[in-house]
Amino acid sequence: MLKLEGVSKYFSKRKIIHSIDLIINKPLIYGLLGPNGAGKTTTIRMICGIIDVDSGNIYRDKNFNLKSIGYMPEEAGLYKDMSILDEILYFGRLHNISKEKTLLTANPLIEQFKLSNELNKPVSALSKGTSRKVQFICTLIHEPQFIILDEPFSGLDPLSSEIMEKELLKLKSEGKTIVLSTHRMEHAEIFCDHIFIINNGKMILDETLQNIKANNMKNSYEIHVLDELKFETYVDYFKTDADTCFKYIVKLDNNFTYKQLISTLSGNKILFFKQETPTLKEIFLHITSKK
């Protein structure tokens, strides 16, 4: 288990992180989200022991100790005068791993990311996307149980992004615990089981994605019926191309309630009825705009 309890951080007497509490204790993918400058990277660095907390405590058990963390920072943490191969081997040595074992671990990802013919290329000559791939490989060299990825998709082309996505799911299936910090809400929505949202250094949301969705359902419904409905001015509707049914988007308000909607549907054959679910992006924008 990793537990932050009342953790705060100051920079130049300015409070950056305000008494954050969080618990990470399951092999899930946790999303750490927030606007620019919210305090995400500072929080990650305190978790990794790179910077100290100024107040509060961080508790780590054996599965979340500092040696078991694999951290991929947003900023490139590679030595530009090294080749890709030397960089990978160097990270292996940092973890006291033999060359043979390092390559055994790295080779599948080297193949996946199509880096086999570029291993002797200096890091200084790499694009941002290729540098991210190398960083990702170096992060996993010691086969960590707890992995923190800060904007891992930044700079990746669509094909490389797809490979990264598959690797995330593979790591989760292997029982790894992952913290994913990203501005790409579509990735957070696809991969994350639990969401933390930080804004202005404060934790403003700590909940499973499933519960977040359930608690923020739209007051809007998609309905497919066999016979045309008679509404006043409360809905937009369109007819299917196949001319087999009528489709409606019904947005409820104080003038037209759920009870009235059900009454309107009475006697009609309902082919489809679903309450619209907001995207994580919509929920994120709504929550952060209020804080």
Write structural notes for this entry.
It is a single chain. This protein is α/β, with parallel strands linked by helices. It folds into 2 domains: about 1-215, Rossmann fold, CATH 3.40.50; about 220-275, no CATH class. The protein has helices at about 40-45, 85-95, 100-110, 130-140, 160-175, 185-190, 210-215, 260-265, 280-290, and strands spanning about 1-10, 15-25, 30-35, 55-60, 70, 145-150, 175-180, 195-200, 200-210, 220-225, 235-240, 245-250, 270-275. The strands form 3 sheets. A 6-stranded mixed beta sheet has the order 5-6-7-3-8-9, sandwiched between helices. A hairpin with a 2-residue loop joins strand 8 and strand 9 (about 200-210). Helix 2 crosses helix 3 (about 100-110) and helix 2 packs parallel to helix 4 (about 130-140). It is globular and about 75 Å long. The mean pLDDT is about 90.
List the helices and strands and how they pair.
Blueprint: E1 2-11, E2 14-24, E3 29-33, H1 40-47, E4 55-60, E5 69-72, H2 84-94, H3 99-112, H4 128-139, E6 146-150, H5 158-173, E7 177-181, H6 185-191, E8 194-199, E9 202-208, H7 209-215, E10 220-225, E11 235-239, E12 246-251, H8 258-265, E13 270-275, H9 280-290
Parallel strand pairs: 3-7, 3-8, 5-6, 6-7
Antiparallel strand pairs: 1-2, 1-4, 8-9, 10-12, 10-13, 11-12
